[in-house]
Design goal:
- There is one protein chain.
- Among the domains are: about 130 residues, Nucleic acid-binding proteins (OB fold (Dihydrolipoamide Acetyltransferase, E2P), Beta Barrel); about 190 residues, P-loop containing nucleotide triphosphate hydrolases (Rossmann fold), CATH 3.40.50; about 160 residues, Rossmann fold (3-Layer(aba) Sandwich), CATH 3.40.50.
- About 40% of the residues lie in helices and about 15% in strands.
- It is built from 27 helices and 21 strands.
- The strands form 4 sheets. The protein has a 7-stranded parallel beta sheet, sandwiched between helices. The protein has a 6-stranded parallel beta sheet with strand order 16-21-20-17-19-18, sandwiched between helices. Strands 2-3-4-6-5 form a 5-stranded mixed barrel.
- The chain binds adenosine-5'-diphosphate (ADP) and magnesium ion.
- The site of adenosine-5'-diphosphate (ADP) has 19 residues, from α11.
Length: about 750
């Protein structure tokens, strides 16, 4: 998306920068990175639809669909020569296959492979369908860790079927056209002869490894002539990075291990560099001579607030409030990120910050992502501010028109000091008298533009953004390097970390009767329903069904339940939440609308259905809703059969760890930061190959180069270059602001 017409023809713009040369893009080639997949030979509409599930829609997407592993066929180890404790690649014929159930409910496939020299066992955890794939008599190639577990075995190896059952040892031509034919047909076309290092791609149902390889190969052929270099040559040589086109050829088709590694390094560097360049640009925009109102005060309101509280602030809370006080007393606008684990008490810090601004004579806007959270903050703020004579208004969707009008004019004439709302706060019709401080809660739920529009309601207000997704410092730097960072690294005393249990299906009833007993004793419970990928309608359905089952259930019939979901009207949501807060409702069946921020001290139990559908950090967020009171808290994860190995690993971490920062780090180590910052959440393209946790050195190098580039170049020298076009394509409106400014 391009915000202004001034550079509408950047595609053909010749750059005049001193060391940024661009190529003029030719018009003769009909294919480019934006070409839809269905135009690629072998893709076809059916296959294109399947690939869309992996987020692959264009040739460019296919090009950046990087292998998740490689099969190294350059060194084949005879089965008799395998030794435990390393990785190996071998070829053998399947002698037997069996499916075995473990006591923990896993369904593992065991296969015995044989070659001229001997036998070895292969085990795949919880992928029962492999029983049908690995038929007896098939020759397969396996690659992975070799371990001694009773006997020598390949554990979860990558594998590839070289020849189907009954085929003679003859070589296959391998040159088969890739069309939209049944998968099985392509599967049969083994390529046993292909030596070297072969990529293994992430797949989706109905697209086999072989098909994926061919598709990526065709995309590569079509795009190779278009993959011009866009990085300044000086950076490439200083950091010893290979050209962009070479990197893509080698990553998909490595000529050696070393070359594959070099290719990976170039692409990972680029991912980090792009992000850092975005940050450098954004920092340069902040640094334009800009003055914020210095908000200075004695701190009397905060003092009074603290006297009214039934508890003491933690040292971390006091430290952060002091940081905010200093920041906003200057005429340089504050841009501060406050990170703190769930339950670390961010709301109170926000309130204290708000009161500092109010005492200095300014207004405050607090934006939160859900109506439920806004109502809750509204209640807290009103309760604590009223005795101080500070007027608070909560703008939610449910307000009657006349009341909304009244509040808007009170905000405009300055009699309301603090306004809370969802993104409703950024509507045209809302104006402030003197907005001095903007606070954004759960900031990852908002886009930059929404934040910018709220800031635009004042003349360069100070800004505090808060996040409960605890990000290790290195990553905070990667993503928010343009912000100052405060960390609440301490939990309020008396905080009891919930105990986490995995409940097998056969003990579900037992769990319900336990819950029934707790409800009778006055406890409150959340039942959280599965997140169903990409379909709010299905989420709703799951919650509605569960609610119907539970209210009719013998164990829960005598208790009062309620249903909460995002599609309800604001008034209804408020009613339900209020009833829950007041203790009138015992159990609340909910979609993930309660995931962020909800704070009900008396709720001490939570049941999560289908925990395998949630990410680790999300489970941790949900768990953070309980254990806010003084009574012991429990989280029950319902483990129906079919929980995969990956999900089990997440659940194990959750059961072991209670610290959000540690959990985030584990999550990152296991998954890589790629999906950790899901595209939807941060609005940034995912890191596919870069892992700043594992390779902080590369991040540092990318950061240095990006910041130097922006410092050295004039804006006009950067805008319009090939590098710029890349940024535009990746970051859209985030950098368009720079282009106009
Ligand atoms: P989060 O950081 O997850 O947003 P909240 O701001 O919702 O956490 O705070 C969690 C709970 O802890 C709230 O009920 C709040 O009143 C309470 N709380 C905050 N600070 C303290 C403190 N210093 N001592 C005791 N309880 C506190
Ligand atoms: Mg919060």
């Amino acid at each position: 998306m391009r915000a202004c017409g001034y550079n509408a023809n950047v595609g053909f713009h010749e750059c005049s920068g001193p060391h940024l040369r661009t190529e003029v893009r030719g018009t003769h080639n009909p294919m480019d990175v934006a070409t839809q997949l269905r135009f690629l030979k072998g893709a076809g509409p059916a296959r294109a639809a399947r690939l869309a599930k992996l987020g692959i829609e264009t040739l460019g997407d296919l090009l950046e669909h990087y292998p998740r592993a490689y099969l190294d066929r350059t060194h084949l180890t005879p089965l008799a020569r395998l030794v435990p404790g390393g990785e190996a690649t071998s070829v053998g014929v399947v002698r037997s296959v069996s499916l075995r159930r473990t006591r923990g409910g896993m369904r593992n496939v065991h296969a015995i492979l044989e070659d001229e020299s001997g036998l070895v066992e292969c085990v795949w955890f919880n992928q029962p369908y492999l029983e049908r794939v690995l038929k007896r008599g098939r020759r397969i190639l396996v690659s992975g860790p070799v371990e001694l577990f009773r006997r020598l075995q390949f554990k979860n190896p990558e594998f590839e079927i070289l020849e189907p059952e009954g085929t003679a040892n003859g070589r296959h031509t391998g040159g088969q056209e890739c069309t939209d034919q049944p998968v099985e047909a392509l599967e049969q076309s083994g390529d046993a002869a292909a030596p070297g290092i072969v990529p293994v791609y992430p797949l989706t149902a109905g697209v086999s490894q072989k098909v994926m390889r061919k598709l990526v190969g065709s995309a590569l052929d079509a795009l190779m002539p278009l993959l011009h270099e866009f990085m300044p040559a000086s950076i490439l040589s200083r950091r010893i990075l290979i050209p962009w086109a070479d990197a893509h050829r080698e990553i998909h088709n490595p000529s050696s291990r070393e070359n594959m590694e070099t290719a990976r390094r170039r692409i990972a560097f680029q991912e980090l560099f792009d992000l850092q360049l975005l940050l450098a640009i954004s920092r340069r925009m902040h640094k334009r001579p800009q003055t914020a109102p210095p908000l200075r005060c004695e701190g009397n309101l905060v003092q009074h607030l603290l006297e009214d509280l039934p508890f003491e602030l933690t040292a971390a809370q006091r430290r952060v409030i002091e940081q905010i006080r200093q920041d906003i007393s200057r005429d340089c606008p504050m841009h501060r990120l406050l990170e703190g684990d769930v339950g670390s008490g961010k709301t109170l810090v926000a309130l204290a910050g708000a009161l500092l601004a109010v005492e200095a004579g300014f207004q405050v806007a607090l934006m939160a992502p859900t109506e439920i959270l806004v109502s809750q903050h509204g209640r807290t703020f009103e309760r604590l501010c009223e005795p101080l004579g500070v007027r608070v208004a909560t703008f939610t969707g449910g307000l009657p028109a006349s009341r909304a009008r009244e509040l808007r004019s009170a905000l405009e004439d300055g009699s309301i000091a603090i306004a809370l709302g969802t993104h409703a706060l950024i509507q045209e019709s809302i104006a402030f008298h003197r907005l001095g401080l903007v606070i954004v809660d759960e900031q990852h739920r908002f886009g930059v533009t929404q934040r910018a529009r709220l800031q635009g309601k004042g003349r360069t207000p100070h800004t505090l953004v808060m996040s409960a997704t605890p990000i290790p410092r290195t990553l905070a730097l990667t993503l928010f390097g343009d912000l100052d960072l405060s960390v609440l690294d301490e939990k309020p005393p008396g905080f009891i970390s919930p105990k986490t249990h995995l409940v097998p299906e056969e003990r579900y009833e037992e769990m319900l009767s336990y819950i029934s007993g707790e409800l009778a004793g006055g406890a409150q419970v959340y039942f959280v329903c599965p997140l169903i990928e990409a379909s709010e309608a299905l989420d709703l359905r799951a919650a509605t069904d569960l609610y119907a089952r539970l209210i009719a259930h013998a164990a829960l019939r005598q208790h009062r339940g309620a249903l909460l979901h995002g599609r309800m009207k604001q008034e209804e949501k408020d009613q339900v939440m209020n009833a829950f807060v007041a203790g009138e409702v015992g159990f609340l069946v909910s979609t993930t609308v309660i995931e962020v921020g909800v704070d009900v001290a008396n709720a001490s139990l939570m049941v999560i259905e289908h925990p395998e559908r949630f990410g680790l950090s999300q489970l941790h967020q949900l768990r953070g809703r309980v254990g806010r009171g003084r009574q012991p808290a429990h989280l029950f994860l319902v483990g129906r059969s079919g929980i995969g190995e990956e999900a089990m690993r997440r659940i194990e971490i959750l059961m072991r760890e209670s610290d959000g920062f540690r959990i985030a780090e584990e999550d990152l180590r296991q998954r890589g930061p790629g999906d950790f910052f899901g595209v939807r959440q941060s609005g940034l393209p995912p890191l596919k190959l870069a892992n700043p946790i594992a390779d902080p050195q590369l991040l540092e190098e990318a950061r240095e180069e990006a910041f130097h580039l922006v410092d050295d170049l004039d804006r006009s020298e950067l805008v319009g270059t090939a590098l710029w076009r890349r940024l535009e394509a990746r970051f859209g409106e985030r950098i368009a602001l720079y282009e106009v400014g």
